[in-house]
Amino acid sequence: MLGFLLVLLSAFFFCFQNVIVRVLFTEHRLFGMVAVGGFVTPTLHHSFLLLTQRMVWVVPLMGLLAAKLYPPTWREIGQLTQPQHRPLLLRSLACGSLMFLYLALLYVAIGLIPTGIALTLFFTYPAFTALLSWGWLGDRPTLLRWGVMGLVFVGSVLTLPTLKTSLDHNSWLGIVTGVASGGAYALYTVLAQQVFKQLHPVPFTWLSFTTTLILAGASLSFWNFQETQLPWLSLWIGGLLSAVFTFAGHLLNNLGIRRIGATTAAMISASNPALTVILAWLAIQETLSGRQLAGTAIVTLSVALLSWEHRRAVSK
Questions:
Q1: Residue 177 and residue 112: Cα distance in Å, rounded?
Q2: 30 bridge partner residues
Q3: Facing residues of 28 across strands?
Q4: Measured between alpha carbons, how far is 312 from 155 in angstroms, rounded to an integer?
Q5: Cβ(59)–Cβ(99) under 8 Å?
Q6: What is the full DSSP assignment across 119-172?
Q7: pTM for the whole structure
Q8: 223-271, pLDDT tens digit by residue?
Q9: What 3 state SS string does the chain have?
């Protein structure tokens, strides 16, 4: 039950992160009182800039708290440099590379298509996770879990905003990168589940963040940021807020994966689009249609059913 609650709480933190990204790209009235946001246009290089700013905050924050959360953190990271632990180090760095890949693809999707659609496409990843876990780890989903996964997918689709414009090249590219980001995240969670058998989630998460920071920073070398008109203070504050929720969300999710496995964690996390719709309605007054409310209810009930199924399996 603790693993279920950890992953569900991580989903709430990711919701806050999603809303922050929306605000950074598009101006909204926060809680109906003050207009904030719209600091940068949703372009590829601005997406990499926001990702880098987020990780610049996350890595030292995680470094400061790592030893308090898990005292042997730095000793275990140091041991990874020893020859007998090199395979584990390479798998950990591969997870960090996958983290960068799925975040970069998701940011590109957010820049090309409406954020709600990009997030829902990303959160099709439980299907990829289930298939990968089945083929790679032999963790075959039960019939009930397949049914729950289908209900979560249907509910998430119902939460989609209506795409009224015709699909041009950029829209199709956004759809492809949105789905690809989900596939990359599924690979990340399944590989992470294997790494957690030998490495605690705290040092693993720090290594993933650090790898992402290095790759995101390197990607900025392809653009020249001599744009003095950018509101840097607002961007750095937004990056800090995003970093706090990113840190909490990933850490709790990794702790949850260690307890309940990647497939169950993935299906719980699939409630994120519906939760984001609710938070966006509360924080930035994005309206909910009847269809979206129905989708939110379906996802919520599906996750509750999954919780019941998991408790029943554990009690046997």
A1: 9
A2: 34
A3: 36
A4: 24
A5: no
A6: HHHHTTHHHHHHHHIIIII--PPPHHHHHHHHHHHHHHHHTSPP--S---HHHH
A7: 0.77
A8: 766 555 788 888 899 889 988 888 888 788 878 877 777 667 766 766 6
A9: CHHHHHHHHHHHHHHHHHHHHHHHHCCEEECCCEEECCCCCCCHHHHHHHHHHHHHHHHHHHHHHHHHHCCCHHHHHHHCCCHHHHHHHHHHHHHHHHHHHHHHHHHHHHHHCCHHHHHHHHCCHHHHHHHHHHHHHCCCCCHHHHHHHHHHHHHHHHCCCCCCCCCCHHHHHHHHHHHHHHHHHHHHHHHHHHHCCCCCHHHHHHHHHHHHHHHHHHHHHHCCCCCCCCCHHHHHHHHHHHHHHHHHHHHHHHHHHHHHCHHHHHHHHCCHHHHHHHHHHHHHCCCCCHHHHHHHHHHHHHHHHHHHHHHHHHHC
Helix/strand/coil for 49? helix
Percent of the chain past pLDDT 70, that is, above it, reads: 82
Count of domains observed in the chain: 1
The 3-state DSSP class for residue 30 equals strand
Q: Which residues of the chain have pLDDT under 50?
A: none
Structure-token pair, residue 81: 């440099």
- The one-character DSSP state at 198 is T
The residue whose two tokens read 């603790």 is 2
Q: Which of 45, 65, 40, 33 is nearest to 243 (CA)?
A: 65
Crossing angle of the two packed helices 169-195 and 232-260, in degrees rounded to 10: 50
What is the number of alpha carbons within 13 Å of residue 10 lying toward its C-beta?
A: 24
Task: Please report the sign of the dihedral spanned by the C-alpha atoms of residue 83, residue 84, residue 85, residue 86.
Answer: positive
| 8 to 23, 75, 82, 248: CA distances (angstroms) | 23, 30, 36, 12
Contact status, residue 131 vs residue 84, Cβ threshold 8 Å:
no
- Could you list the beta-strand ranges (E) of the chain: 28-30, 34-36
Domain that holds residue 137: 2-315
Return the amino acid letter for 191.
Answer: L
